[in-house]
Specification:
heterodimer, A: 269 residues, alpha/beta, 8-stranded mixed β-sheet, 40% helix, B: 86 residues, alpha+beta, two-stranded antiparallel ribbon
Chain lengths: 269, 86
């Protein structure tokens, strides 16, 4: 069975592509066959975050329009041999993705034995975002603990429960929240909403909390998804999210302020 | 920057954020799934009612409910106290 997972948020810049790349790597690292698809037509970026931008020959739209086969367009990851990337097209024609075309690509990936298809949604609630979520079995809603992001996430949850293939059949999509840019220190001082606050407002389960970390920027600078950085708390937090996605329960880490030692407190270290 | 500013902390604002979100999210959820004309209908009704009675913008509640294949448009207007109505 192939599981189709959309990574979405409504608001831009909250970490959808970073999350798609890291979850895809995390699943592949555990031996799953994974394809990660960029639905952001006209604004291709997943290839950069995955570090395969110079190997893009064909893209999502080329496959749909029959310019090449799906096999030709899938870029095999150099680090994990069960991971494949399908780049977005840089065309300005946003209608280049069609529901039937997307369905065909997803069906072919399923027939090919992929375990997971990660759909990296564009920001907004336009056609690209709609198509990215339309065929999904599960949704990961990426949210920052910040007012506009939380409100937009609620809007997206509304669309997930009405404008998807599963919703139209009267079935539901499994929805998860993934908080990014979380600062336990600012939560402790009351400047930032906590995991519990966001969960209470949106009313769905939290699959992961990624702490604010400079490692995320350096990871995309290098084209190495942050989950592959063994020394990073952000990587550990993403790996925990992968564990939960696979159905296991692990406690949330990095959500409480790290206890400072006596000297650190004295000297503000 | 004065010396005092060094010690001044930004006031905790997370609770404000949470409260504002709770209200706006609840409001948006209540109109979700309904037809797109509901907000406009609400505004126009408010304008008509205000020609006669000075009601608060929040005094009008519109709900669309589905029961046994029938749709019921429920409208409730809270009128102000007698003396305020003028």
């Amino acid at each position: 069975m192939t599981e189709i997972i959309v990574v979405t948020s409504g608001k831009g810049g909250v970490g959808k592509t970073t999350t798609s790349a890291s979850l895809a790597c995390g699943l592949a690292r555990r031996g799953k066959r994974v394809a990660v698809l960029d639905y952001d037509i006209g604004l291709r970026n997943l290839d950069l975050v995955m570090g395969c931008e110079r190997r893009v020959v064909y893209d999502f739209v080329n496959v749909i329009q029959g310019d090449c086969t799906l096999k030709q367009a899938l870029i095999k990851d150099k680090r994990l041999d069960t991971l494949f990337v399908l780049a977005a097209s840089q065309t300005r024609d946003k209608d280049a993705l069609s529901p039937e075309g997307v369905r065909r690509v997803l069906d072919e990936l399923s027939a090919d034995g992929f375990d997971y298809i990660i759909c990296d949604s564009p920001a907004g609630i336009e056609k690209g975002a709609h198509l990215a979520m339309y065929y999904a079995d599960q949704a990961i809603v990426v949210v920052n603990p910040e007012v506009s992001s939380v409100r937009d996430s609620d809007r997206i949850l509304g669309l997930l429960s009405s404008k998807t293939a599963r919703a139209e059949k009267g079935e539901s999509i499994k929805e998860h929240l993934l908080l990014t840019r979380y600062s336990p220190r600012r939560v402790a001082t009351g400047e930032m909403m906590s995991v519990a606050d966001v969960k209470e407002i949106l009313g769905i389960d939290v699959i992961g909390v990624i702490p604010e970390s400079p490692d995320v920027l350096s990871a995309s600078n290098a084209g190495t998804p942050v989950i592959l950085n063994e020394d990073s708390d952000a990587a550990r937090a993403y790996d925990d999210a992968v564990t939960r996605l696979l159905g296991d329960t692990v406690p949330m880490r990095f959500i409480d302020e790290r206890k400072k030692g006596f000297l650190a407190r004295m000297f503000g270290g | 920057m004065g010396l005092l500013a060094l010690f001044r902390r930004t006031p905790p604002s997370a609770n404000v954020a949470k409260e504002r979100l709770r209200i706006i999210v609840a409001q948006e959820r209540s109109t979700r799934g309904g037809p797109d004309y509901l907000p406009l209908l609400r505004r126009e009704l408010l304008e008509v009612i205000r020609k006669y009675v000075n009601v608060d913008p929040d005094a009008i509640q519109i709900n669309l409910e589905r029961e046994d294949g029938q749709e019921v448009l429920e409208l409730s207007v809270a009128l102000p106290e007698k003396n305020a109505a003028g």
